């Protein structure tokens, strides 16, 4: 339908994404109407996770839409690059998109092309990753207000993406917001597994599977996830629209509950942007094959200069907390406005926490909530700035015989060991000298005397 360019808007004094109708379609009045209609639809619905439209007009008889420029890419590219996402990270994208879809449905609009490529991720200093639902080009009102299906499509023509299309959309039946919920269920499967629900070579075979094949089991690929996730996706992807959840938000909330995550919007449920992650093999770094009883897994490398053998029985262990400038520089986008920058703390003195007992909580204290972590990353008076990217209940150190392991407590900010993100709920074995990054700049080095 269109091409999208990065452009400079002279009137606004900023860069924008400029969507221009394809020259081959510019003479087609039906496509021109659909193109202009997209801008009006998006402008009609106000939601923080729907891509903002700045202007819609024509230049030299060529229709265009000027929108917010999103620099972080889309979820399709992220999955193609990194593979399956940790559960918390996937849910952090799905919940706001579900909210955006429900808002559009309340305005009488159905997106009809919900897929990872239409979910853009913006990044910037000092703020969480922000996902935008984009491309309402196929959207249609439940009440078309005078437009007929023939105005938007050719009879018998399928509009949408087969891998994420609901059965009623494929058959030309009545399409409601629950069709978008079906697409969101397919997106959830993609984010959690790295693949599409029905991989087939031909589009017609994909559409047949959407109509007649049962939803695939997420746990067939992600054995670290609970079986209740299969039930949630199965309901969201029911063949009959009336058998699905009442709303996209209800689906996303049920998925969070099945994954053992707090409700969307609760403290600690937002993820901060980071650099590349994962093993590059389609699995999250340190991917474990069990959920109920996670085994310790190795994803460490012995620091340079250390001896090849070491004593695992004797010695006192210490967690050394500091601020990591290299990590701070790696997680932020370079092209942000100065007033958006959260500065690196001027005071970066080390804090040392001797490790003892069987478990130690890592986080930020909250007396009112009864959260008193043993490794408290709340800044002391006159000390380094508090890293608010660290959750109240962020991670835990667990002693196993003479060694220690770390486990992320389901935070969507994430935890990295030696530069690689670890899946939540999975024990990761630590060695002398290993580095744990969390928040915006915090690094914890595990040492043994």
Helices, strands, pairings?
Blueprint: E1 2-9, E2 14-21, H1 29-44, E3 53-59, E4 62-67, H2 75-82, H3 87-106, E5 109-110, E6 119-122, E7 130-133, E8 140-141, H4 149-152, H5 167-171, H6 177-193, H7 203-212, H8 228-236, H9 248-258, E9 317-323, H10 325-331, E10 351-354, E11 359-363, E12 375-376, E13 393-400, E14 403-408, E15 415-417, E16 420-421, E17 428-429, E18 435-438, E19 442-448
Parallel strand pairs: 11-12
Antiparallel strand pairs: 1-2, 2-4, 3-4, 5-8, 6-7, 9-10, 9-19, 11-13, 13-14, 14-17, 15-16, 15-18, 18-19
Helix pairs in contact: 3-6, 3-9, 8-9
Describe this structure as you would to a colleague.
By secondary structure, the chain is of the alpha+beta class. It has 3 domains: 66 residues, 2-Layer Sandwich (Phosphorylase Kinase, domain 1), CATH 3.30.200.20; 167 residues, Transferase(Phosphotransferase) domain 1 (Transferase(Phosphotransferase), domain 1, Orthogonal Bundle), CATH 1.10.510; 132 residues, Tumour Suppressor Smad4 (Sandwich). Helix content is 24%, strand content 20%. The strands form 5 sheets. Strands 10-9-19-18-15-16 form a 6-stranded antiparallel sheet. The radius of gyration is 24 Å and the shape is globular. The protein starts with a strand and ends with a strand.
């Amino acid at each position: 339908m269109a091409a999208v360019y990065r452009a400079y808007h002279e009137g606004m004094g900023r860069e924008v994404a400029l969507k221009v109708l394809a020259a081959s379609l510019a003479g087609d009045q039906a496509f021109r109407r659909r193109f202009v209609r997209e801008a009006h639809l998006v402008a009609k619905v106000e939601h923080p996770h729907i891509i903002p439209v700045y202007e819609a007009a024509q230049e030299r008889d060529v229709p265009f839409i000027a929108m917010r420029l999103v620099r972080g890419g889309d979820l399709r590219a992220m999955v193609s690059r990194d593979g399956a996402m940790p559960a918390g990270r996937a849910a952090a994208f799905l919940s706001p998109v579900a909210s955006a879809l429900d808002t559009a449905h309340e305005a009488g609009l159905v997106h009809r092309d919900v897929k990872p490529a239409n979910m853009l991720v913006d990044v910037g200093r000092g703020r969480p990753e922000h996902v935008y639902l984009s491309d309402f080009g196929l959207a249609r009102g439940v009440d078309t207000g005078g437009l007929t299906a023939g105005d938007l499509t050719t009879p018998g023509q399928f509009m949408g993406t087969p891998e994420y299309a609901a059965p009623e959309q494929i058959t030309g039946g009545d399409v409601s917001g629950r069709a978008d919920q079906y697409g969101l269920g397919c997106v959830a499967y993609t984010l959690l597994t790295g693949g599409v629900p029905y991989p087939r070579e031909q589009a017609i075979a994909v559409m047949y599977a959407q109509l007649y094949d049962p939803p695939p089991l997420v746990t067939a690929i992600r054995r670290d996830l609970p079986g209740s996730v299969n039930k949630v996706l199965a309901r969201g992807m029911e063949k009959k629209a009336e058998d699905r959840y009442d709303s996209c938000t209800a689906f996303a909330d049920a998925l969070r509950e099945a994954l053992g995550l707090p409700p969307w919007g609760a403290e600690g449920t937002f993820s901060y942007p980071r650099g590349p992650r994962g093993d590059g093999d389609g699995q999250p770094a340190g991917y474990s094959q069990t959920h109920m009883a996670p085994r310790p897994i190795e994803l460490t490398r012995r620091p340079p200069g250390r001896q090849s053998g070491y004593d695992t029985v004797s010695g006192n262990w210490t967690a050394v907390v500091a601020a990591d400038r290299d990590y701070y520089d790696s997680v932020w986008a370079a092209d942000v406005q100065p007033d958006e920058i959260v500065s690196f703390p001027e005071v970066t003195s080390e804090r040392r926490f001797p490790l003892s007992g069987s478990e130690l909580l890592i986080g930020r204290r909250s007396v009112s909530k009864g959260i008193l972590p043993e490794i408290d990353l709340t800044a002391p008076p006159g000390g380094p700035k508090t890293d608010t990217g660290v959750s109240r209940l962020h991670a835990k150190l667990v002693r196993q015989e003479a060694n220690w392991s770390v486990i992320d407590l389901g935070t969507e900010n994430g935890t990295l060991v030696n530069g690689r993100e670890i899946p939540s709920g999975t024990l990761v074995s630590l060695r002398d000298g290993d580095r744990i990054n969390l928040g915006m700049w915090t690094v914890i080095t595990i040492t043994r005397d």
